[in-house]
Hints:
The protein has four helices and six strands. By secondary structure, it is of the alpha/beta class. The N and C termini lie far apart (34 Å).
Amino acid sequence: PGREWLEAGLEHEVVASWGEALLHHKQPRFDHNGDFDLAVFQSKFDLIVAFAVFIHCGPEQLRAFLTNAHGALARGGRILVDVNLDDRTYQEGRHRKYAHASHQKIRYAEQDLLSLLVETGWDAVELDRRADPKKGKSRTLYRLTSQRGAPGEG
């Protein structure tokens, strides 16, 4: 994803809430695994950033991420996601071959995505919507908060 999305997310969630000094204190970490096993971090997070992730997830992977993320967030934690939405229902995009892997783009209709978020226990707030001049589509930035409360609360 573009660096501007990470910076916008940090600005909306970290700097606006707690100040820039928190970035240095929290030391953001990143991992890549297709099973979305967030237990690999062995800690709870105040903020999870998933930029350019949903576009590469089929419905079952997306459901796994949304389910597993509840257990990875600290009380009051949030998730920032950017999503390329389409006016049609879930569709598998064209496969593109790269030197290292096959690449697939998947888009979701906004209502389908929002329904899945509610079904898996998330509240979504739209923070930003921007035109993507390269593709002629919009990308949307959402903040997700768990409807389940802190672990053990339900």
